[in-house]
Amino acid sequence: MTPLGLYVPGDSPLHRAPAGLKLLVLLVLVTAMVLVSDLAWLGGACGLVAVAFGVARIPSRRLRPLLRTLLVTALAIGLLQGLLVGVEAAAVTVLRLLAALAAANLVTLTTRIDDVVATAERLVGPLRRVGVRPERLGLLVGLTVQAITTLSAIAGAVREAARARGAERSPMAFAVPFVVRTLRHADELGEALAARGVGDEED
Amino acid sequence: MIVFEGVGHAYEDHTVLQDVSLSLSEKRVALVGANGSGKSTLARMVNGLVLPTRGRVLVDDLDPAKDGRAVRRRVGFVFTDPDSQIVMPTAGEDVAFSLRRSGLTKARRAERAAELLAAHGLEGYADHPAHQLSGGQKQLLALAAMLALDPDVLVCDEPTTLLDLRNTRRFAEVLRGLRQQVLLVTHDLDLVGDFDRVVVVEAGRVVADDAPRPALDFYRRLVDG
What we know:
The structure holds 2 protein chains of 2 kinds. Chain A is globular and about 55 Å long. Chain A has helices at residues 13-16, 19-35, 39-56, 60-85, 87-109, 113-124, 134-164, 171-195. The model of chain A has no long low-confidence stretch (mean pLDDT 85). Chain A is an all-alpha fold. The model of chain B has no long low-confidence stretch (mean pLDDT 92). In chain B, helix 3 (91-98) packs parallel to helix 5 (135-147). Chain B has helices spanning 39-45, 68-74, 91-98, 106-119, 135-147, 165-176, 212-224; strands at 2-11, 14-24, 28-33, 54-59, 75-78, 153-157, 181-185, 197-202, 205-210. At the A-B interface, helix 6, helix 7 and helix 8 of A face helix 2 and helix 3 of B.
């Protein structure tokens, strides 16, 4: 399983662009998406993001699951919105979501977590004076991304085990082992971080 | 030198270890014993992950209970499940994470991480998503990430339990070439045949402490009842 948005190595201009700049452009784009409700502009933004994907030369094996997820999400939300608030408002919401989600994914696909972590640490660096620990924030970003893949793997294994016992429809057969394994993982991760000296530098 | 002086450990009313005294100066020492015998607890005490409730542990004269930070700098730890040790999304980033306080520039850290990966059979995997590596590769990654800290002692708690034969042999080969003192907790008796010393732990006590052959013969007889 390949989780969405995990870094894809490359040498495109987007890969080489500084992480801070990409995050800033993403922020501006998403803000603009919220403020603009003209269908042509929103369609243009989607087109722009699509061109950016082309520039980044993301391999099709990574694009396909991303597109599938985006389209299923857009379709579900579009149908619901269409029924509740009308077709035009639904189209606006769908285009906004598509552009914002795709752009956010493009940033993570072309940016190493290391760079995101370094940017986050730099951004909150001045807050060190008021007790904020930038390195903790950086670690949090890295662990969050890693947790997505780990929890997905745990969920997949638990679901398979439930299926093997013919209990695929039982919420308990999923929830109990999932929670137990997640807690055990958290415990082991804590030990592993301690073994790697995390926290020692701040004593 | 790792020293256990009258070490005991209990969780509430459950005694896990009692009165263990050992001085381990050999380069490669193995701890073997049944599940729940207390060998992992003993190993975890070496870098302070578990503290004794009786007695004390010394690593190069440092007590993990008092000098935890200094001890952890000297003692690396490899766990059974590599998935629990991998912190960053790609192999290179995970090794570089260990080097974050090394004073190296970011570019140099990435280079050093790639070198360490190559030295442990993961050449060209720096940009590879860590979760997509095979079990054996993940354990080698966990080992490389720990060795990036250049500890003097490496404690491995059943590191080959989840590995197939090929990866177990590969891991053993890497261990064999290390400059570090290695303390290996394992159920794989083939792995420790060429170790310098084997300690057998049973019901929280050391019941044999010898060269591999006599210690393992004793353990086999113990298991056979």
